[in-house]
Amino acid sequence: MINKHIVIIEDEVDIQELISFNLSKEGYKVTGFLTGEEGLTGVIELKPDMVLLDLMLPGVDGLEICRQLKKDSNTEHIPIIMITAKSDESDVVTGLELGADDYLSKPFSPRVLVARIRSLFRRLKAKEVTSKSIIKLTDISIDPAKFEVLVQSKPVALTLTEFQILHHLAQKPGWVFTRDQLIDAIRGEDTIITDRSIDVQIVGLRKKLGESGKNIETVRGIGYRFKE
Ligand code: CA
């Protein structure tokens, strides 16, 4: 088995070492960089399987690195987990919109980090669902061709917007979507959709899904996800 290669870009030496130690112990190959500049060059050269990216870096910061990696066709596919301070919610939102896959707030335990990394690799491995195929998750079945949702085999009547939100979330279980990303996903309708109305749609959607509605999780300050 080829070990997955993970690059860590983190300017705090202690955290960098703690992460490296724990990931190496799990069998990952780890390369660390202490500055944004070196990290960016390093990722472009090494093409790792994943990047752990501290957002608060001196010089080129994490969001800029994320932006650069996601606009380069050689690196855009590399998954990114952002590492943030608790207070950086708006940066997390920006990072997710730039294409980062997940985030973790400091302080975190190495065990949680390892679990997140595994979970992201697992999600990436799961076959990408094409937009027309039927999605089955827990007791919910979503048929985008027929605009039909079944919960425990019984049809549930959703509005088009509710359907689109559910379909978007369910295509990537475990992934967090910001309100803006959900608005983008359902654009093309006549009504103007605001952040607030996304929240209202989610409330309606959960209610209609009954017990299964709890699969749609609120990620405080960030957005929503379908439970993995
Ligand atoms: Ca930092």
Task: Please summarize what this structure is.
By secondary structure, the protein is α/β, with parallel strands linked by helices.
Descriptive account of the structure:
The protein has helices at 13-25, 36-46, 62-71, 89-98, 110-125, 160-171, 179-186, 195-209; strands spanning 5-9, 29-33, 50-54, 80-84, 102-105, 135-137, 140-143, 148-151, 154-156, 177-178, 216-219, 223-226. With 228 residues, it is of the alpha/beta class. The protein has two domains: 5-130, Rossmann fold, CATH 3.40.50; 135-226, Orthogonal Bundle (Arc Repressor Mutant, subunit A), CATH 1.10.10. The protein has a five-stranded parallel β-sheet with strand order 2-1-3-4-5, sandwiched between helices. The chain has a four-stranded antiparallel β-sheet with strand order 6-7-8-9, with helices on one face. It is elongated and about 55 Å long. Residues 11-12, 54, 56-57 line the site of calcium ion.
